[in-house]
Specification:
Keywords: Coiled coil. With about 400 residues, the chain is mostly helical. Helix content is about 50%, strand content about 10%. The strands form three sheets. A three-stranded antiparallel sheet has the order 3-6-7. Strands 4-8-5 form a three-stranded mixed sheet. A two-stranded antiparallel sheet has the order 1-2. A hairpin with a 5-residue loop joins strand 6 and strand 7. Helix 4 packs antiparallel against helix 12, helix 5 runs parallel beside helix 6 and helix 5 packs antiparallel against helix 10. It is elongated.
């Protein structure tokens, strides 16, 4: 390329020849990243005295290649076989751990609790879990008592007389048969059945004699060591029946509220006139008890299992056993063991408070501390209502 430039002084034009320069010489010289790394590596190798050799390739025959490929496939198959064996060993190990947990009394190890009831499938029990389960059971009792009062208003005097006879062993008619009082007394009677007939017993088999014998064994062990008794109780519960037997339900109701149970069978269940007929038809009839009452007793049994299978019961605090309690009708109120659910007019007037009805049992934890002293801790106070709150307004 030749260009002619005019001299600034106005002289003659002199041609100046400018050689074409390549773009690579005009711009700073830059190498690709791979070449820079290779260059840096070569420079480092030269500084250290290393010899850089170009990569070499080894050519093999087709037969050798097939042999290598065959060996690789065999090794891969062996690795897959070992992996399958390890997975099978892990499954067997999980089954063994589950079996050991069941033998130790933890029947909920590795179980899916998404479709369980509110009382089932709890591996660790705390006070919050107990309170939630008790609230659900109390709601069932309240619903059934209110349904009886609404469905059979003409039976209010009979309900009152039956509850009074079963709970206080006093017979006679009472003038106050208001629906609120009768409903509260029904809840009191059912709570007493749950307390004495379900929670404070070990219902592990469908035989009342066997259950009584197991409970005596537990009391003997518990008197010596509450921790050992708790472990024994959890292991025994893990091998017990899965549901509350209907025949055992009838025996429990006959024992703790016979008069009220007879009325319920007559008007709210199948037509049965005597308790002897009820005992005869126990084996042949599954629908002997009203379904609502069956649901309550089944939930109470599950609640009892929740308490007896609790791991927390033999923790380092020395607590060994959950027990339920129901205050007697007409007894003085104790704020440390009872919780009033309605306003009390007598307390506002500085008068003595009297229990009108217990709506749900209270719970205590019994055990022995490190010094060997018996201790009782109130986990849940009994829900009660005073007598003045049941008076007609």
């Amino acid at each position: 390329m030749v260009t002619t430039h005019e001299h600034p002084s106005g002289g003659s034009h002199q041609p100046l020849t400018i050689r074409k320069m390549s773009l690579e010489r005009q711009l700073p010289h830059r190498l690709p990243l791979e070449e820079q790394e290779e260059s840096n590596s070569n420079a480092t190798s030269q500084q250290l005295g290393w010899t850089v050799r170009p990569p070499s390739f080894e050519w093999v025959s087709q037969e050798q290649f097939q042999n290598v490929l065959k060996n690789f496939r065999a090794a891969h198959a062996q690795v897959e076989l070992q992996r399958d064996q390890m997975e099978e060993q892990e499954k067997q190990l999980k089954l063994l751990k589950k079996k050991v947990a069941q033998l130790e009394g933890d029947s909920t190890y590795g179980a899916d609790h998404s479709n369980r009831n509110s009382f089932k499938g709890v591996s660790s029990t705390d006070d919050s879990t107990i309170n939630n389960a008790a609230s659900s059971l109390a709601a069932l009792i309240n619903r059934y008592a209110s349904t009886l009062v609404i469905r059979h208003p003409h039976l209010l005097p009979d309900f009152w007389a039956a509850v009074t006879k079963n709970c206080t062993e006093n017979e006679g008619q009472h003038q106050d048969v208001a629906s609120l009082r009768v409903q509260s007394l029904l809840r009191h009677a059912i709570s007493k059945v749950i307390c004495n007939g379900v929670v404070n017993r070990l219902l592990l088999t469908n035989s009342s004699e066997a259950n009584e014998r197991l409970w005596r064994i537990h009391e003997c062990i518990f008197s010596r060591d509450p921790v050992v008794a708790s472990v024994w109780r959890r292991q025994t519960c893990s091998a017990s029946m899965n549901d509350f037997d209907r025949a055992l339900m009838i025996q429990t109701l006959q024992e703790y509220m016979p008069s009220l149970f007879l009325i319920l069978l007559k008007y709210d269940g199948p037509s049965i006139k005597t308790l002897a007929d009820a005992s005869v038809k126990t084996e042949s009839t599954d629908c002997l008890i009203p379904e609502a009452l069956v649901e309550i007793l089944q939930s109470a049994w599950e609640f009892s299992r929740l308490l007896h299978e609790s791991k927390q019961s033999f923790s380092s605090s020395g607590i060994g056993l959950y027990r339920a309690f129901v205050p007697e009708l007409g007894s003085a109120l104790d704020a440390t063991r009872m919780e009033l659910l309605k306003r009390c007019h007598r307390s506002e007037n500085q008068e003595k408070e009297v229990l009108g009805a217990c709506l749900f049992p209270g719970l205590i934890k019994m055990g022995r501390d490190s010094r060997g002293r018996d201790i009782h801790v109130v986990v849940r106070r009994a829900h009660v209502i005073c007598d003045c709150a049941l008076l007609p307004q």
